[in-house]
Structures are given as structure tokens and as C-alpha cells.
Amino acid sequence: xxxxxxxxxxxxxxxxxxxxxEYSLVRQSYSPRMMNTFLNLAGFGMQAWxxxxxxxxxxxxxxxxxxxxxxxxxxxxxxxxxxTCLVAHVRGVTYSSEAVVTETNLHPFRFxxxxxxxxxxxxLRQFPRMRYALxxxxxxxxxxxxxxxxxxxxxxxxxxxxxxxxWGLPGTAELAEATTAALRILRDVRGAHGIDTSSPVNxxxxxxxxxxxxxxxxxxxxxxPEDEMLETDxxxxxxxxxxxxxxxxxxxGWEMSEAEAPRSVIIASEPLTTxxxxxxxxxxxxxxxxxxTPDGVGLEVRDLDA
Length: 306
Known about the structure:
Blueprint: E1 3-9, H1 15-18, H2 25-30, E2 44-49, E3 60-64, H3 72-80, E4 85-90, E5 117-122, H4 127-130, H5 140-143, H6 151-161, H7 172-192, E6 199-206, E7 210-215, E8 217-218, H8 230-233, E9 240-244, E10 247-250, E11 253-256, E12 264-268, E13 280-281, E14 286-293, E15 296-303
Antiparallel strand pairs: 1-4, 1-12, 2-3, 2-4, 5-6, 6-7, 6-8, 7-14, 9-12, 9-13, 10-11, 14-15
Helix pairs in contact: 6-7
């Protein structure tokens, strides 16, 4: 199962999220604490928004199938970038002759010209049975953009198709509504094809100004006897967040400082630190929406009606 991370707030060096904390995202690629039987060694990707860069509305993109702990280019970049928004992802796939490790399958996904990106932790079981039933729910111009072989890219195209303008800049509320609508379509298509196998869909969607994340699973707990993936997601897929003033090193450890008006939020598959006291677990079947405001970062966590 993959690991995903998002940041929104004041400029923050990328290394403070990917490398420096004791359980940074890069470490989670080979030593995840909340999924001990599965490694995430199928590549890394990130999208990062920096208002001070050229064309600030377009995120900096980095994707590589190399293992992130040994990716020197990524380490150098992480020391130089300080974005106000970041979505990063380490990909995990099971060992299989059908698994495809290629750049086109790396998250976060972003079609050329789109203002929305998506990263996914989970997998839609029996996806080949339902793949082409989704075509009627995806705009043709978006379906033509799909290059990879993953269910995640289809989910991305499906969410974009629920927006009034898939190439525009949606507000936080519209992005949340499109995400919920896409999950309902997936539920209906699964039902029409008789698919009821447990399928986690933790999503992280961002425009650089807002982040929408879900902690969700279809038919949680239902597995066929021969399912080889059972051990990887028998626990409900985890999702946590830390919100406050500044994420920084303090007394030899990393923590989110307190702030009366929050200025930063981190959303991650699991906490980046051994000490969880400054982290909050997102409830199961919930949607988290964060946005940059003139006063800092606004955050809402609500039940996901899908």
C-alpha cells in the first residue's frame, strides 16, 4: 500500500517532510510503521507550488521510478525547494507479473493544463472488470489523457469530470463535492458489476491553494478466501494530520508548534514522528478539506457521505 503526504501553509523546506523527521515520507517507503508487511518501492512523485517561482500556478513536478532513499537528485531538490503546498507519494505494488513500474503510473497525477493533482493510497479490487464502465462518466477529452495502467489515474479523470471546468481552478467546496460525487459513481459501478471486495480509497487532491483528502474504503472487511492482499489493508488505511504554526525541529525532535490561528497543516498516511501528541487521526469514512485564507489555514473534517 502506498504512502501519501500533503502540506499546505507557510513556505517549508521539502526536506523537513521527506527526509529529516524520524519517520519521514522517504523512510516510510522502506519502513512504514502502520503497514509492516508491505514496502513501497515502486517509485516516487511530488507536485510542489512555490509562489516565488516562475509561473507560480504551475507546480514543480518530479517523478522517478528509482528508490527515493537512494535518489540523490531528489535529496538535492528537497534541500532547495520551500513550497507553500506539496503533494508527495511513494508507490507500492505487490510482486506480480502484471505489475507495471513506470513513470506514467507514478502519482501525483496531473493532466497537461489541469490545475488539480491527485495522489491515491489504496486500490480498487477487480478494477479491470469495471474500468470501461467508467468511460460513460469520464469526459472524452479527459479519457484521452490517461496514459498509465492504474485505477488511480481513472479516479483522477473521474474527479476532474465532476468539476464544472476540469481545466479551471475549483474552490475547496467544489473540489470536495466532485470527490464525493466520484466516490458515489465508483460505488454504483462496483455494485452493477457485483464487486464487493474491500477496496481502500484514501485520496489526496490539491490545487496548490487547497487540499481535499479522504479516509475511505468500499466494502471494508470483505475479502475472498484466496485474496493475497488481505494482510496489507486489513487495518483500515490510516490517515493523520497535524495543524498549527510551524513544523520544525525542537529539542532534537520534530513537531508542529501551537498557534492561535493555524498557519500550516500536514496530512499524511502516518505521522512523521514517533511522538503522536501533535497529530490527530482522521476518522474512518471522513473527508478533510484545508485551504489557504488571508488569516492562515482553514481546516474542516466531516463525515463522507458516499
